[in-house]
C-alpha cells in the first residue's frame, strides 16, 4: 500500500533536497534546544545544559546519513555524482580524452557504416507486406538483361511466364518484370523536351501481388491484361512525382510520350516503394502488354526465345516456400520441354539446369551481386580494426590507471568502498564509450555516404541508409562490448591497488610494472601490443594482396589496343535498321570515321568490347567428340572488315576479314586462340570448317590471339568471329552496332568528331554510348578498385594505431624504469647502448606480434581467394612488404622513447621515485 | 545498568503509540516519552529517531507541521493520521500474537494437546 507512495516521495524529494536537509538540521537543533530548556528547568546552568543536551544528541551525522538514505534515490544521486566527477576528470586531460574518443568514433563509426550498408544492400526486405511469402524466379542480379535464343534458367520469356502462371498450384500469384532502363520520353506533349526517366515493364498483377496500394489514382489491374497495346497507361513513383512534378496533384492524366505512344499516368505509388530492385529507384512502371508498341523493332511478347523477365510470386495461403520451390523447378522444365523447338528441349533437360529459384523477400539487385562479398570482407576488416582500437584504448586507460594509482590509494585509505570506486571508474569508461558512439554515429552517417559516392563515382544511389533500429542496436552493442573490454580491466586492476606501496613510492622498484604486482612487467600492456601488431600484419598482408591483384588485373594483356580504342554504340532498333540498310549505314559511318585525321583505324561489330552484350551459338566440328552439350557451344560476334587491325589485336595465323569478303556468298570466320587450341589441338585451324548446321559450313580464315573483351578477370572463352553481313542458321541478324575506333592519340580527343560522323549519316540515330575503352574497363573492375583502396586505408590505419600503441607502451615502460636506466648510465653505459637496448626490446615485441600474425594472415587470406587475380595465397612480395613496413614503423615509434631514455640524467633519475 | 539502544522496527510502533496517547508531539517530546515509558531502559538517539519519523511520514502514518512549543521554541510537531491509527492497531495485534507464540516456546509448560 505504501511502497508506491514511498517510491514517489523518494523521487520527488530529490528536488528541494537542500531545503529539507536544512529543515532536519533545524529540527534537530530545536530538539537540542528543548532538551536544554528542560535541563535548565531542573536547575542546570544554561551552558552546562547545552553541553549535556548536545552530548545526548548522538548520531547527528548518522541521522543526516540515514535521512539521505531514506529520501531521494541514493543510487541515482551516486550515478549523477559519478558522472560529474567523470566529466571533470576527463576534462582535466583533454588530449587523452580526445584521442580515445576519436579512436572509438573511428572504430564504432566504421563498423556501423559497413553494417548499415550491408543492411541496406544485402539484408533488408522489400517494404511490402509479408515479404517472407515472396519467391523469385530468375537470376536476381540480371535486372536489365535480354537474351535471344534457347530458353534459359536465369531469365524467363513472356509466353513461358504465362504458362507458369496458369499451371502453378502453390502460388497465389506470379508477377513478372523486366528491363530497367532509362527511356526516352516527352512529358506532357509529344513536342516537349526529351527526358530520360527510369522505366520498367511489369505485369498486370505486379502491384497487387506485392501489396503496394496507390497513393493516388490506381495501380495496374485486369485492364492491363487485355492484350498487347490495349492499355496505354503508366504508374509513377512518389519520388519521381516529387522531383519532376513537384507533388502536383494534376499529374494524373498527364501523358508520357515514348516513341509516338502516349501513356497516361493513372497512379502514384506510396513514398516507401521505389521498386523491387535494391539500389535502383524506379520512376515509371509500364504494363508488359505495352512493350510491342513501345519497342516495335524488338517485339518480344510472343517469342519464346526472348528471355528477359524476372518473376516474383507469393505463396498461396497454407503453402510454404519450400513446397513452392519443389513444385516450380520441375514445372518450369516441363513447360520448357513441352514448348521447345528443335534440340532446345532435350538440351535443357540434358544439361541439368538448376532453376534460379529463391526467397524473394529481398527483391532483385545488381548492386547486391557486385558488392555482397566485398562488403562482408570489409566487415571483417573493420571488425579487426575495432579490436585493435579497443586494445589501444585499453592500453591507454591502463597506463592512466597506473598514474592515478595514488589518487585511488588515498581514496581507499579514506574509506572509499572498493565497489563504488570500480563503479566510478567504469562510469568514466561508459562516458567515453557513449561519447565515442555518438561521434561514431555521425562519422558512420558521413562514411556510408562517402563510401557509396566512391563506389559509384558520385552518381546517387537510392539506398535507404536511414539508421534503423537494428543498426542503432548494433552500435550500442559494439560500444558496450568496447566498454567491457577496455573499461573493466583497468578498473578492476586499479581497485586492487596495495595501499602502502603505492602511496609511498610508485616506481621505486625496478621490476614494478603493474601496481601491486611486484615482479610482473606489465604483461597485459605488452600482450595487447603484440596482439595489435599481429592484427596489423593480417590487415597489411590482405591489403598488399588485394593491391597486387588489382595491379595484375589492370596490367593484364588484354590482347587489344586498350588505350587507343573508343567504343561508339548506336541504337539501330530505334530506327529500324536491318539487312541491306544496316550494311549501308555501317559502311557509311565507318568511312566517315576513317576520314577523321586523328583516327588510325575503324571497324565495327555487334557486341562491341566491354559493351555488356554477347552472343552464343551451337556448332559441330567433324572429328570432335563432345562430352557434354556445353562443349559445342561458343560465344561469337559478327564483325566488320579489318576487325583485327581495327581493335589492335594480334593475328596468329591466316588473315583478317577484308572488305572484299563482305559480299561473298561463302561463309568465313575468325577464331580465337582458345578455340583453335580446344578444337584443333595439334593441327592448323586455318582452312578447317565449322558446321553450324547440316548444310551450313563456315571456313576458318584466321586465328586471333585471345582478347579480354568482356571481362578483365575472366579467362578467355572460345570465341568465333563471323562477318557482320552473314546471317542464317546459328547466326542471328545483328541486334546492335558498335563502332570500334582506334585513335592515334587519346581516344577522348576524337569522340566529338566520331559523334559528328554518325550524326552526318543519320541525325536521328540515337547514340547510346561514346566512351573510351579504358574507362569501360575501369568501370568493370569497380569492385576490385574499391577493395584495394579500402583495404589499404584500413591497413594504414591499423599500422598507425599499432604504432601509436607501441609508442605509448614504450614511453610508459621507460618512465617506469627511469631509475634503472639512470643507474646503468651512472655505471658507465653509453647513450648508444641505452638506445639500442630500448629499440631491441620494442622490436622483440613487434617480432612476437609478427610471429603470431603471420600464420593468422595466411589463414585469413584464404577468405580473399575469390577476389584475388593472379596472386597466390602465399605471396612473398606482399608478405615481405607488410613485415618490412611494420618493422620500420616499430623502429620509428620507439625511436622517440629510446632517445628520451638515453638522455636521462643519472642524477635526476636516481632521485626520482 | 546499560541502556539498550532501541531497534528501528519496534521504535516505529512506540512512536505511533506515543502519538496516539499523547496527541501531537515534537521530536524531543516523543523521545522523552519513550525513555520515560521504558523506565529509563531505552535510549533514543537522533540517528534512529528522526529517520524513523521520516519513514512513518513517508508511509503516511503521521503528518508533521512546524509549530511553537510551550516555552516559545519553534519545533516540528508530529500527529497521528487515520491511517496511522489503523496501522497502530494492526501492529499492536501482531505484536501480541508474536508475543503469545514466543511465550509458548519459551515457557516451561507443555504446549496444549492437539485434539
Characterization of the model:
In chain A, the strands form 3 sheets. In chain A, strands 1, 2, 3, 4, 5, 6, 7, 8, 9, 10, 11, 12, 13 and 14 form a 14-stranded mixed sheet that branches. In chain A, strands 17, 18, 19, 20, 21, 22 and 23 form a 7-stranded mixed sheet that branches. In chain A, helix 2 packs antiparallel against helix 4, helix 13 runs antiparallel to helix 18 and helix 26 runs antiparallel to helix 27. Chain A is built from 28 helices and 25 strands. With 913 residues, chain A is α+β, with helices and mostly antiparallel strands. About 2% of the residues of chain A have low confidence. Chain B has 115 residues and is α+β, with helices and mostly antiparallel strands. In chain B, helix 1 crosses helix 2 and helix 1 packs across helix 3. A 3-stranded antiparallel sheet of chain B has the order 2-5-4. Chain B is elongated and about 60 Å long. Classes of the chains: A alpha+beta (913), B alpha+beta (115). The interface between A and B is medium-sized, with 29 and 25 residues.
